[in-house]
């Protein structure tokens, strides 16, 4: 099966859907499965960015995939994933 389009969700002719069309498809899909949460389509995009960061993918590659012109925007998407390392020494009683 070959690549027919550069778009993630191509039309049957390989073109791009409009923003409103994608939104209405998303709403219908949520309705079909009975999803009541306020999950919006961009939440999936953010989840994909966080998953990529958890897998250790390069931040600049994630930025390119999200088509962000600024790395600061990408950092907003993945900041919760990359935890700061604590410098506080802590001994645990069960580890000698």
UniProtKB/TrEMBL annotation:
GO BP, sorted A to Z: DNA integration; DNA recombination
Alphabetized UniProt keyword annotations: DNA recombination
Cross-referenced PROSITE patterns: TYR_RECOMBINASE
Signal peptide: none
Record carries keyword DNA repair: no
InterPro entries to which the protein is assigned, alphabetical: DNA_brk_join_enz (IPR011010), Integrase-like_cat_sf (IPR013762), Integrase_catalytic (IPR002104)
Residue ranges annotated for the Tyr recombinase domain, each copy included: 1-90
One MF term in the entry's GO annotations: DNA binding
SUPFAM superfamilies assigned: DNA breaking-rejoining enzymes (SSF56349)
The protein's name in its UniProt record: Tyr recombinase domain-containing protein
Origin organism lineage: Bacteria, Pseudomonadati, Pseudomonadota, Betaproteobacteria, Burkholderiales
């Amino acid at each position: 099966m070959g690549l027919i389009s550069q778009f993630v969700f191509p039309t049957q002719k390989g073109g791009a859907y409009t923003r409103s069309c994608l939104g209405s498809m998303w709403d219908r899909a949520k309705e079909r499965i009975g999803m009541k949460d306020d999950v919006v389509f961009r939440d999936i995009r953010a989840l994909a960015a966080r998953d990529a960061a958890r897998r250790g993918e390069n931040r600049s590659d994630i930025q390119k995939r999200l088509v962000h012109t600024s790395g600061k925007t990408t950092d907003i998407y993945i900041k919760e994933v990359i935890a700061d390392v604590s410098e506080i020494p802590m001994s645990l009683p069960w580890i000698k």
